[in-house]
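USER:
I wish I could look at a protein chain and see how it folds. I am handing you a single protein, as its sequence and its fold in token form. As I understand it, each token names a local backbone shape. I hope you can help me see how the letters and the tokens relate. The protein I mean follows directly.
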Amino acid sequence: MSDKPEVIIETDDIQLAKRGAEIFCRQALDRVKKSGQFSVAVSGGSTPRAMHRMLSQRPYLDTIPWQQINVFWVDERMVPVDHPASNFGAARSDWLEKVPIPAGQIHPMPGQVQPEKGASQYQKELAFFFKDQKGDYPVFDLIFLGIGTDGHTASLFPDAQASLTTEKWVISVKVGNPDVHRITLTYPVLNHVRCICFMVSGNKKAPILKTVFENPKANLPAQKIKPLRGKLLWLLDEAAASLLPEKLFPVADHAL
């Protein structure tokens, strides 16, 4: 990779979840102190779910300024909320219905409309929320991402050319496993963030991480995450990082 990210390696998935929750908490406290609110976009998948459950427990339940937090999504599958593949459905049951965040500050992607209409609706929602910001793209305070074994992130997959050329903030795609319609934030939005954090666990992800860090010519979606002015953080457990030589990068041993 051309840019030097910060890398934190934890012993296992539980410690990974704890560090992720600490980053969420510290970033929220800092941004609320500076600006009065905190915007975060979260991902689906299995890895962040333990972190999400921790957020609904002490000390985070009592420490995070929930009344000033707005939660958005990186991507969503076009399925009913109660479907096992729904990112919002999982987050709602894991933590959102257990924390004192105002309902109007939870911004799920519309999963039960036509995909292009859903993408357009979500872009309008983002435009309204970020209307006081300057620039062509919204600037989230924090975004959490995962990575697939094929190098995809969000719902931005290899060889999906439409996602590379667009100037839109949100697009619809039909890719992945399950092969369903999805809507996703685009690279320009992800790269305008103040801080973006990949959370990766398990030895199944070790080979793709080795490719991401050692082979910039692989041209994987995850390699296209290069914040213009923000911070890039990789939060890994030891299993996921098992194929990465230490000389590749400085390992950060502190949470943001």
